[in-house]
Specification:
Layout: H1 69-78, H2 85-94, E1 100-103, H3 110-124, E2 137-140, H4 144-157, E3 165-168, H5 174-179, E4 188-191, H6 193-201, E5 212-215, H7 218-223, H8 227-235, E6 244-249, H9 254-263, E7 268-271, E8 282-288, H10 294-303, E9 310-313, H11 317-328, E10 334-337, H12 343-355, E11 360-363, H13 365-368, E12 378-381, H14 388-395, E13 405-411, H15 419-426, E14 432-433
Parallel strand pairs: 1-6, 1-7, 2-4, 2-5, 3-4, 5-6, 8-13, 8-14, 9-11, 9-12, 10-11, 12-13
Length: about 450
Amino acid sequence: MEKKFTKPENESGKLNTTVKQSQTNPHNKGKSHHRRKRKTVSEPEWDISQFEVEAVPDKTRFHDLGLADVIMHAIQDLGFEYCSPIQAQILPQTLKGNDAIGKAQTGTGKTAAFLITLIQDLLDHTPEERFLFEPRALIIAPTRELVMQIANDARDLCRYAGLHTVTMVGGLEYGKQKQQMEHQLVDIVVATPGRLIDFMTRKDLSLEVIETLVLDEADRMLDMGFIPQVKRIVRATPRVEHRQTQLFSATFNQDVLNLASQWTYEPVNVEVEPEQVATDTVEQKVYMVSNDDKFKLLVNILHTPEVERVIIFANRRDQTQRLFDRIRKTDIKVGILSGEITQNKRSRTLEDFKTGKIKALVATDVVGRGIHIDGITHVVNYNLPDNPDDYVHRIGRTGRAGSCGIAITLACEYESFELPAIEDLLGTKLKCELPPEALLK
């Protein structure tokens, strides 16, 4: 199938490229935006012969997809050889220009799938003229952490492609984010809905020439109340027939399906679950404990020598804040990640966690989904989540990159009724036990 999208044109037949006047040159007031040529990128001395991957039955190599050498070079650097199941199913379709709806959780390789398609398309269809503040591809995600993670992955895959990726998230200085686009053409924008609306409202960004739109974690955006904002954003892009749209969600309820039908054009549907809902590298424990003894048990767990780096999950912001305040009064170095914490402070906290300056993080599910840090030895569910999928996301923060991890759930008398739904999702019974007496002293 040929690429279905064509650039929207105005009455004169030219591209619609009018955006707000550049603030960097006051002498251009009233004139159209400065045209900027992309910086030339010197081609590295590399060719595909340096990246050999054996053909294996029932496995799809990235070599089999006809990707540009600059993408293949980055894929080699990242250590990828064979496509994950979702990549093998979706890439042959999206690389032809088809829209896609994917049901996929974190850890399935969906981010690389939509990024590879997006980057290949940008390389294949280079417009004759470009203007500042007009991205060609847009990725929307519900949380700041997820936006940052996607942008980092995009930069890794674009390292030889000469494409410029910028992020737009709340909690960081608006002016500095705008500066990312003032002197260089922007190809890919990764954004949270609220901050993207800020840029659109101030007319500091035009979405009129978007060629590719990606909506990641649509179910989470629905849960967080972002859908009215997302609808406004989608309306500002070219019509559905004139762009390629990919929508991903860990779950599909009727609301998500309705949105997907509005925002995509004759999409392919791909549904891939992780090979195992819970990985073998994570040992799961459930301690039955009274609500009054929970905090004492938690502190004693945190003091055990094998707990080196731990994330503690609570369900709500207020629970997270109270838990953080109580732990901070002990001798344990602890940080907090929740939606009300400013982005600068969250970034510093994550960096301190990575470098070992703090041992424990208290987090909500919304923020926890965006944490991808190797070396997390333990996850503690201080509260059982209301949604079984959140349990899987939580415990997936440990046991990464081939290492082993331990997930400990503290289930009190008020929460144990949540366990059957989690067990149904896992397809196995969780062993519930009383905590060792030493941990309750």
